[in-house]
Each structure stands twice: as structure tokens, then as C-alpha cells.
Amino acid sequence: MAFIRKKDKVKIISGKDKNKRGEVLRTMAAENKAVVSKINIVKKHVKPTQTDPGGTREIEMPISMSNLMLVCPKCDQPTRAKNDFLSDGKKVRVCRKCGEMII
Prior knowledge:
103 residues, mainly beta, SH3 type barrels, six-stranded antiparallel β-sheet, three-stranded antiparallel β-sheet, elongated
């Protein structure tokens, strides 16, 4: 799914974090998942080591890209982006609602 990339603003459209917004930290194309900041937080128990005291940590887990919707930076609305081509042949994403390029 090439419509969602790193540093994009997204809205969660289903699951326990529905209607929340966040920024994509990283994408995993092979698994069709993405890690979004402050979304899908779980507690992970870490064993202590010589340098790390261990304990319970809260980390962000990957979420399926089918549960994410891209938010247009100009109109601030969730949208399904479409691909368009510039005059020089470069492929860009375009907001379906306001027609603005999404960089």
C-alpha cells in the first residue's frame, strides 16, 4: 500500500483506538502494517540486564494499514489519496477532497 508513508498524518478508522490521529513512525510493506505514534500501545515486560533495570514498558505495536486513513495536510480531512502524474512524469499523491498534492 503505497498511499501511506513515513511521517504522514493518519486517522485510525477501526479498532480500539478508533478516531484517534497520529504520525506514522515506520511502515512494514511486507506485512502491510505501520507503527503510529501513541496508537496501539501495549505493555511489554523486560528482563533486567547489567545496564538496564528492566520492568514494564509501554511500546507502540504495528497496526494494519487497512485500519488507517491518510489525513490531508491542507484541508485536515481524512481522504483516500489518488495517484496523479506531473508534466515531467513524476508520480504524486493527490487529495480527493481538495485536489492538493500530498508530499
